[in-house]
Amino acid sequence: RAKTAGPGTVRFFEVSDDKSARDRRALQRDLEKAVGRDELFLVYQPFFDIRENRVTGFEALLRWQHPVRGVISPAEFIPIAEETGLIHPIGEWVVRRACSTLSNWPSDLRVAVNFSAAQFHNTSILQTIVQALAQARVAPSRLEIEITESMLISKYGPASSILNSLLELGVTVALDDFGTGFSSLTYLLKLPYTRIKIDQSFIRDMLTRPDSAAVVKSIIGLAQDLHIGVVAEGVETTEQLECLRQTSCDEVQGYLIGRPVSADRIFALLDQNRQWTTPAA
Ligand code: C2E
Ligand code: MG
Ligand code: MG
Ligand code: MG
């Protein structure tokens, strides 16, 4: 670490550590107020079914409209929320809002919500999800929970009882960023997941790197053998889409199909044309 790196470097690192620590504390204080001030909002990114040629639902992605800094990405503030416990009220807000938005959509569409490991540390999350579904009057099968592989091997591992209860209710569960963790397949697939989502890093490189292409192909094969769904994340080109079509991937997501947009914007698109297809189709 910096403090043992020699006299010449100590000061430099201490100063920048101080600044980033201060920034972080300031952001943390602002985040405490963000929920009450209605500064958080969700954007929605479509899932596109390659065979059926239609949009099957949307993933809810969190954004923070900071009063001074503008829109802040979840990659920046979710870690702070996790460390401070703010992830609990924020996560509750996300699932309630996503379910209430879902209630305005045609019934053949689902919404996917991202969860942090820490949220499953609090068993009241189950009650929160059940209430959110009931209040919005939407079928549990239209809600999908996205969890990452790394979450399963974290210290919050025993979340499997909550996941099992959700699956029994009919809520679906997707394994996000699949292929990026270090866990064994047998461990990963202990629960009856509904879907796996191939991490975007493999999709990005699949046409230029044979190893990435092999990973994509084998994840799709695995999903087929297990009779579960498979989604490719981060599809940006028609060449990638074509390749995934030939490999029998079920669904794709990415800027080619649609960027994340506000609920209003989706509602307008669905209003005109409930079978919302896409230019890429
Ligand atoms: P994720 O769930 O894996 O979401 C995919 C990320 O890739 C999103 O970034 C999305 O905007 C981005 N993306 C989608 N298509 C493309 C593409 O074609 N190319 C590229 N380069 N990127 C694409 P975003 O919205 O910044 O979210 C980052 C991560 O933050 C998410 O990764 C998720 O892990 C986390 N996150 C987002 N919303 C929530 C939330 O409500 N709760 C929790 N706990 N985590 C969240
Ligand atoms: Mg996700
Ligand atoms: Mg992902
Ligand atoms: Mg991710």
- Principal-axes shape call: globular
What ligands can be seen in this structure? ligand C2E, magnesium ion
What proportion of the residues form beta strands (DSSP E)? 15-25%
Strand order of the largest sheet: 1-2-4-5-6-7-8-9
Condensed summary:
With 281 residues, this protein is of the alpha/beta class.
Architecture overview:
The protein is an alpha/beta fold. 46% of the residues lie in helices and 20% in strands. It contains 11 helices and 10 strands. It has helices at 7-34, 74-84, 87-102, 124-136, 149-152, 160-169, 185-188, 200-205, 210-226, 238-246, 263-272; strands at residues 40-49, 54-66, 70-72, 110-114, 143-148, 172-178, 195-198, 229-232, 251-252, 261-262. The chain has an 8-stranded mixed barrel with strand order 1-2-4-5-6-7-8-9. The longest helix has 28 residues, at 7-34. The radius of gyration is 20 Å and the shape is globular. The relative contact order is 0.12. It binds ligand C2E and magnesium ion (3 copies). Residues 176-177, 197, 233 line the site of one magnesium ion. One of its GO terms (molecular function) is catalytic activity. It comes from Bradyrhizobium niftali. Residues 24-274 form the EAL domain. Keywords: Membrane, Transmembrane, Transmembrane helix. This is EAL domain-containing protein.
Write the layout of secondary structure elements.
Elements: H1 7-34, E1 40-49, E2 54-66, E3 70-72, H2 74-84, H3 87-102, E4 110-114, H4 124-136, E5 143-148, H5 149-152, H6 160-169, E6 172-178, H7 185-188, E7 195-198, H8 200-205, H9 210-226, E8 229-232, H10 238-246, E9 251-252, E10 261-262, H11 263-272
Parallel strand pairs: 2-4, 4-5, 5-6, 6-7, 7-8, 8-9
Antiparallel strand pairs: 1-2, 1-9, 1-10, 2-3
Helix pairs in contact: 1-2, 3-4
The protein binds ligand C2E and magnesium ion (3 copies).
The site of ligand C2E has 21 residues, from strand 2, helix 2 and strand 6.
Domain EAL: 24-274
Protein name: EAL domain-containing protein
Organism: Bradyrhizobium niftali
